[in-house]
Amino acid sequence: MNIWAIVPAAGIGRRMAPILPEQDARQVPNTVARQVPKQYREVAGQPVLAHSLLKLLALPELEQVVVVLHPDDEHFARLAIARNAKVISTTGGKERQDSVLNGLAALSEAQADDWVLVHDAVRPCVTVADLQKLLTTLADHPVGGLLGAPVDSTLKAVDDNSVVTGTVDRSRLWQAYTPQMFRVGQLRKAMQQASDSKKAITDEASAIEAYGLQPQLVLGNKHNIKITHESDLQLADWLLQEQLRAGSS
């Protein structure tokens, strides 16, 4: 089977306080153009995005990966991995679904029945073992699916004042991870429908669900964290260092 990948990396990380490169923050205007988005922050010796791409490139089945960038991105071209023969880039759109559609368009040689993995740029700790498990589990699935894990913590419903209104039954709730793996043609139609309807989606599986299909969840390692806050960088650094020490990825 032919496998392609898309890595949306057009975000600027508003939930994380960005750092400014090689300067004194008091002397340089704090503008988006001068900030370092979280996907370019360094963990375990490399930018977050580089780790995420290296995991995907470890798949021998992978044909090509397209990185979807902010129009003003000044960082990606400086990365050594940007010169990998299997890595191409394109610009993103206003919403995630627009960026993924741009990524699909950039995969000009992909066929409708090929598989495409969509992976968050800021999930560098995904293991190659989990990627292989996803490919193997979904190889003959009619829809596709995603990595995830059951919710462990007790969940509380609250009102506008953060007052608890009830406890949520978590027995059938899972956390959604990436990559998420779908047929190129089906994903393109689902993402286009989401874009046309102005429906905000948070992952590709929700677009597939809105399209009337049911993705399969595949149990993944809970170390597959998404870097959202400053503290997540420290945890990702530790997890990646542990992977290196264990000789696994």
What would a concise description of this structure say?
With 249 residues, this protein is α/β, with parallel strands linked by helices.
How is the CATH topology named?
A: Spore Coat Polysaccharide Biosynthesis Protein SpsA, Chain A
Radius of gyration: 18 Å
Strand count: 11
Alpha plus pi helix count: 6
The CATH superfamily is known as Spore Coat Polysaccharide Biosynthesis Protein SpsA, Chain A
Mean of residue pLDDT?
Answer: 91
End-to-end span in angstroms?
23 Å
Helices and strands: which structural class?
alpha/beta
Spell the H/E element sequence: EEEHEEHEHEEEEHHEH
Question: Quick one: overall form?
Answer: globular
CATH class: Alpha Beta
CATH architecture assignment: Alpha-Beta Complex
SS strand fraction: 15-25%
Give the fraction of residues assigned to helices: 25-40%
The domain tally reads: 1
Identify the strand order in the major beta sheet: 5-4-1-6-10-7-11
Biggest β-sheet description: 7 strands, mixed
| Low-pLDDT regions | 15-34
Provide structural commentary:
The chain starts with a strand and ends with a helix. It is of the alpha/beta class and 249 residues long. The strands form 3 sheets. The chain has a 7-stranded mixed sheet with strand order 5-4-1-6-10-7-11, sandwiched between helices. The protein has a two-stranded antiparallel sheet with strand order 2-3. The chain has 6 helices and 11 strands. A hairpin with a 2-residue loop joins strand 2 and strand 3 (46-47). The protein has one domain (3-246): Spore Coat Polysaccharide Biosynthesis Protein SpsA, Chain A.
